[in-house]
Amino acid sequence: xxxxxxxxxxxxxxxxxxxxxAALDLSVRRGETVALLGASGSGKSTLLAALREQRQALCxxxxxxxxxxxxxxxxxxxxxxxxHRHGTWxxxxxxxxxxxxxxxxxxxxxxxxGLADKLFTSVDRLSGGQAQRxxxxxxxxxxxxxxxxxxxxxxxxxxxxxALMQRALTAHDTAVVAMHDRALALACFQRVLGLxxxxxxxxxxxxxxxxxxxxxxxxx
Length: 220
Ligand SMILES: Nc1ncnc2c1ncn2[C@@H]1O[C@H](COP(=O)(O)OP(=O)(O)OP(=O)(O)O)[C@@H](O)[C@H]1O
Prior knowledge:
This protein has 7 helices and 8 strands. It has one domain: P-loop containing nucleotide triphosphate hydrolases (Rossmann fold, 3-Layer(aba) Sandwich). The chain has a 6-stranded mixed β-sheet with strand order 4-5-6-3-7-8, with helices on both faces. The chain has a two-stranded antiparallel ribbon with strand order 1-2. It is of the alpha/beta class. 34% of the residues lie in helices and 26% in strands. It is globular and about 50 Å long. Adenosine-5'-triphosphate is lined by residues 15, 18, 20, 38, 40-46, 64. InterPro entries: AAA+_ATPase, ABC_transporter-like_ATP-bd, ABC_transpr_LolD-like, P-loop_NTPase. This is ABC transporter ATP-binding protein. GO terms for molecular function: ATP binding. It holds the Pfam family ABC_tran. Keywords: ATP-binding, Nucleotide-binding.
């Protein structure tokens, strides 16, 4: 069995004085793909932030609020995922005049995401789904082994969401992704974690679960 990449033992997680998880026990091994389910406010984003804190250098972060730079183009927002791989001068030059190789590489990724015709459109002129695909492109261009995603395909239609979720999972060797789409969780992930009011109440292989098994997580 592979090593634990993330581990919490009786951990308190929260925001300042506000406790969300009083005592969390959880480990995630390298190579696992984990869907994080639970009603709004159950603690998914809080847990993702704590996972990120444990292994920041290994993680690609795809946050719910996307954090794109609205005045910059799709190209530049995707390119920003890879700033750490290039030197400062290269990055500064790219802001004004991208090199042909970078245009080709980022352009190919944008095309895969259905954004070929928007490559040099500023993000403030995109639809919600196009902006989300740009954020996914930035995550894919980061090229770190662990994907931490907070509803990364929630604005996309069912087919596109499934295709791009699978694409993102094949590009990372480990993933923990929060979502509200239960069918997507069962279709794409190996393991499902269910949260309810800051407690881990479900931890099971996706293959052992049916949609109805997840209803309990959403009961008021
Ligand atoms: N910055 C914050 N400061 C204080 N409390 C917070 C903060 N962020 C979230 N919380 C609280 O922590 C709890 C868990 O929130 P969290 O964002 O982790 O839920 P979530 O499952 O990701 O919800 P959603 O599906 O709506 O994104 C909620 O009660 C929320 O009000």
